[in-house]
Amino acid sequence: MGYFALLALLCLGCGLGASSYKPHEWTMLILTHHWPQTFCIMQSCKTDIDNWTLHGLWPDKGHMCNSSWVFNASLIEDLLPEMRKSWPDLLHPSPSTVFWEHEWKTHGTCAVHSDALNTEHKYFNKALELYHKLGLNSALRNHSIVPSETYYMLDDIEGAIYDFYKVKPKIQCTHALKGEQTLGQIEICFDKEFTLIDCHHPVEEDTWNNPNNILTTGGSTGFSVCDRNVKVFYPPLKEKQ
Ligand SMILES: *[C@@H]1O[C@H](CO)[C@@H](O)[C@H](O)[C@H]1NC(C)=O
Ligand SMILES: *[C@@H]1O[C@H](CO)[C@@H](O)[C@H](O)[C@H]1NC(C)=O
Ligand SMILES: *[C@@H]1O[C@H](CO)[C@@H](O)[C@H](O)[C@H]1NC(C)=O
Ligand SMILES: *[C@@H]1O[C@H](CO)[C@@H](O)[C@H](O)[C@H]1NC(C)=O
What we know:
The chain is an alpha+beta fold. It has 8 helices and 8 strands; from the N terminus they run H-E-H-E-H-H-H-H-E-H-E-E-E-H-E-E. It has helices at 3-21, 36-43, 80-86, 98-111, 120-134, 136-142, 154-165, 205-209; strands at residues 28-34, 53-59, 148-152, 170-174, 181-191, 196-197, 224-225, 232-234. The radius of gyration is 20 Å and the shape is globular. One 2-acetamido-2-deoxy-beta-D-glucopyranose is lined by residues 72, 74-75. The active site is at residues 55, 103, 107.
């Protein structure tokens, strides 16, 4: 075989490889926490949870990567009690699994291209493991960032997180009220080996701002990166009725 023929073959190989693998070539995992009180202000739901809870574990690239890999709750039966606490669906009461099904379909089926995440059980178990390892709730409390009627500046919150983890988070707010913003989501990022890394804003930024269509049927505006120059409200638990 001539040199050029070989080159052409090789190139065909790489072309195919590139096109079939590109959607799954993620390099970063984003562990997204949300603040239930803020979520429920946006969605008019009710919750008495005053912990940051899991929203999802998202590869930085790829979206709905394999529609034939369907979610099956019985494969994560052992994780469900922990998921109800740490990864609760704030809109659909238990035993609904619609939130986790959505996360699996949208993000989990893309994450599976790492051996450490290549089953449904591994994916959800790893998300829970990372969530507990991080302990965002105690990290913030330990730096006196607590829900309160007084406001914070973004630098205080970001600084506390940086101080604890030595990496930059991505912190998102809702901007429903003029002149202030409400703390809603905190993303902390890992590389493929689950080492903490700085979150950088992915190219597909827009798809992340409102990734849960299923959860935002109330016509809410979604989250965007908090403004550094505007005070941040970190809403405390509403008084119990
Ligand atoms: C909040 O988190 C703490 C520590 O992780 C836990 O002990 C507590 O049960 C959680 N509270 C709720 C309402 O989930
Ligand atoms: C999609 O998921 C199905 C069912 O698990 C699996 O058999 C198939 O190999 C997957 N396809 C790709 C491209 O990963
Ligand atoms: C879900 O998983 C269970 C346990 O492996 C299996 O018995 C069942 O057939 C699966 N259901 C579907 C719809 O694939
Ligand atoms: C807060 O930080 C101190 C000093 O690092 C540590 O000893 C303590 O366990 C932390 N508390 C919590 C709740 O994380």
